Structure formats: structure tokens, C-alpha cells
Amino acid sequence: MKDCNCGYCVGGEPLAKFGIKICDLEVSQLILFKEQSHPGRCIVAYKDHISEIVDISDADRNAFFADVNRAAKAIHKVFNPDKVNYGAYGDTGCHLHMHLVPKYKDEFEWGGVFEMNPQKVFLSDAEYDEMIEKIKAAL
Question: Each residue of 68-81: pLDDT tens digit?
Fold first, then answer.
């Protein structure tokens, strides 16, 4: 099931407003969040336009969390954060996804909740490409 208004479902311009697809995982896709106040911030978005985790099978739920784990391991390997915060929201977007937000001691927002989109740090296309290649190599 897909929603033609959802960036996770259709990709292209709707996705490009906030992210860049890195790759497909077992039951989801890994997306680099364009705003990089937290270096390595990514999103793991489920393959279908489902709002609630309770609406997928146990097998797909387990596979989704395995995808989140795989992405988190790559983020730890490439960016060496002190902690990764995990956020699952969707009051308006209603597509099952999880934000993986690397946090670094003595840096932006350490000790607090991460801001959804602080609009502070954007990279060049070459920098995004380099980051994506490092994440892919670590998966």
C-alpha cells in the first residue's frame, strides 16, 4: 500500500524536501536526513504506508527493528556518537518510520530531546554523497 502524497512512498521531490534515499533494507528504506545538525542522522521508513506498528505482522515488526538495528550499527561505526536517540513520530505523516539521531557530548542538544528539524546544518551534494557511501559500506 502506498500513498501518492507521502515522500517515503513516492520518493522524488516529496522525499527530497527532507531526505536522500540511501538504500533498501529488508522491510524498509534507509534515508539520510538532509538537516545534519547531528552528523549521521537517518530515518528508517517501513516499506508500506502503514501508520501503526501494531498493523504489521510480528515477522515484519521484527524485521523492521532489525533494519533499525542494522542502520544504528552503521551510524555507530561511521560517526562514533556517544548515543543514538530513536524517535517514532507520525501525527501528520502517518507512515511508520523511526528517526535515528546521533548525539555527541558537549555538542548540539546533548542532554535534551532532539529538535525535529532545526534548519541549521545542510551539506553540499558531494558531502551528502560521501556520507551515504560511508554508511553503505558500514551496513
Answer: 999 999 999 999 99
25 neighbors 44 (Cβ within 8 angstroms): yes
Length of the chain: 139
Residue 123 lies in a domain: no
CA-to-CA separations, 58 to 17, 18, 112, in angstroms, rounded: 32, 30, 32
Beta bridge mates, 28 = 46
Q: Give the cell for residue 6.
A: 507521502
Phi, psi angle pair for 14, to nearest 5°? -60, -40
In the chain, the number of structural domains is 1
Tell me how far apart the terminal alpha carbons of the chain are, to the nearest angstrom. 27
Rounded Cα gap, residues 64 and 20, in angstroms = 19
Copy the grid coordinates of residue 42: 537517518
Encode pLDDT of 36-61 as tens digits. Answer: 999 999 999 999 999 999 999 999 99
Which domain CATH number covers 93?
A: 3.30.428.10
118: in domain:
no
